[in-house]
Structure to design on (429 residues):
């Protein structure tokens, strides 16, 4: 069932109630005492809808029935964000005491008989225009035109205000993916997944309607309805943990398999996802480490870029671990530069620009200090990689089309970019 809060409390670190708002009569007077005992003293903040604010106070919502806990936590987080937007970014005990009248007014708007309502700061500021007592270090409020507040609150696009006008209408779309890999010394993949985000910046006039089609691999487009250049079909991509921004029309997505939305103004995250199958690894690392007695080591590492020859990676860093008793190193690299970093006990190999379909190698001789006290064998930490590959996606996700429609019929410039970077990219040696 949805969240139906019985009461909301604001407490300081001593447990004193600063402000409270009762929505139902099913809350006993001992609720705050129980909160002090079980939460504030044990610091188990993950057990109830509560959030510590800036280390100075607690925001506690009491839910008596078996409600949606995730929704309750979401309400608490969004409410704190709303209060901070009114008070210049600060929301501590002083801010609560100085703005209790405004807080009561906001509480009446964001919750009706215990049920959450609109918590968007942009919308609430249209008709609750009172300014809070702001910290002297907070930023000045921006002077924005006030559109029709009633339309914004009751309309279907409360995240976007009316009357926006731009001389140049542009849309920027970025698909940013992070590759996480753990590979064994024998070359078998122990763990591999991709976490991705679709980030957008929209500078569009009026109330535009956007349609985004992704490639055939996940079947999110419908060619019969929207003209687009043909693209080769591939294997099916299974997207896990997909979440959309509230602006996305989920009904249309389920029926037409297109991401349709009226975008917020400026920068926002359209969707995020995770992929665990069919990942295209951008790099293959082939290490060979030989321990020659107790005083010498030979290190040979080959790194192969698997992406296309016309693409390249930037800022590639390969960290190859060596024992702590390393005394001297010598290198030979076919590309980039390498050096020994004693602070992290690694050979650090840097390649500023790494072309696709190439195989640079590193060969190193490592001299060790022989010690009588150190009898434990070296446990060989994994090799780590850092990189960024523009115009490449490890998941295979691509944009087929991005169409903008607005009743005035203005022209729009669309920009699409892909970036794949390393998350936890490790190879055991």
């Amino acid at each position: 069932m949805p969240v139906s809060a019985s009461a909301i409390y604001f407490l300081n670190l001593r447990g004193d109630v600063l402000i409270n708002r009762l929505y139902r009569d099913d809350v006993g007077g001992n609720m705050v005492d129980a909160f002090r005992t079980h939460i504030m003293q044990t610091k188990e903040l993950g057990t109830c809808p509560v959030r510590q604010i800036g280390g100075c106070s607690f925001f506690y919502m009491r839910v008596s029935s078996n409600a949606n806990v995730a929704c309750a936590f979401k309400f608490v987080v969004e409410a704190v964000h709303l209060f901070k937007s009114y008070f210049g970014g600060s929301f501590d005990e002083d801010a609560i005491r100085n703005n209790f009248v405004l807080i009561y007014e906001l509480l009446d708007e964001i919750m009706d008989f215990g049920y959450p309502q609109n918590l968007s700061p942009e919308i609430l500021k249209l008709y609750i225009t009172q300014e809070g007592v702001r910290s002297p270090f907070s930023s000045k409020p921006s002077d924005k035109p006030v559109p029709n507040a009633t339309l914004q609150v009751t309309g279907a696009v409360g995240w976007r205000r009316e009357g926006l006008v731009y001389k140049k209408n542009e849309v920027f779309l970025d698909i940013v993916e992070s590759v996480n890999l753990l590979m064994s010394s024998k070359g078998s993949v122990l763990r591999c997944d991709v976490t991705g985000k679709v980030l957008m910046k929209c500078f569009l006039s009026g109330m535009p309607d956007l349609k985004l089609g992704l490639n055939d691999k996940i079947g999110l487009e419908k060619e019969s309805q929207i003209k687009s250049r043909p693209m080769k079909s591939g294997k099916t991509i299974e997207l896990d943990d997909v979440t959309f921004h509230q602006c996305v029309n989920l009904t249309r997505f389920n029926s037409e398999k297109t991401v349709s939305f009226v975008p917020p103004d400026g920068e926002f995250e359209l969707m995020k996802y995770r992929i665990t199958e069919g990942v295209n690894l951008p790099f293959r690392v082939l290490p060979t480490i030989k321990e020659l007695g107790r005083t010498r080591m030979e290190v040979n590492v080959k790194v192969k870029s698997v992406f296309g020859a016309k693409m390249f990676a930037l800022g590639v860093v390969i960290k190859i671990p060596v024992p702590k008793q390393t005394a001297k190193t010598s290198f030979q690299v076919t590309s980039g530069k390498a050096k020994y970093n004693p602070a992290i006990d690694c050979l650090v190999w840097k390649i500023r620009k790494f072309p696709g379909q190439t195989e640079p190698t590193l060969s190193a001789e490592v001299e060790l200090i022989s010690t009588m006290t150190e009898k434990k064998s070296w446990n060989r930490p994994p090799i780590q990689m850092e990189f960024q590959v523009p115009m490449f996606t490890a998941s295979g996700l691509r944009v087929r089309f991005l169409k903008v429609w607005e009743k005035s019929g203005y022209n729009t410039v669309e920009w699409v970019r892909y970036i794949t970077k390393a998350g936890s990219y490790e190879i055991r040696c």
Summary: Residues 69-86 form the longest helix (18 residues). The first strand starts at residue 7 and ends at 12. The chain has three domains: 7-119, 170-279+394-421, 283-390.
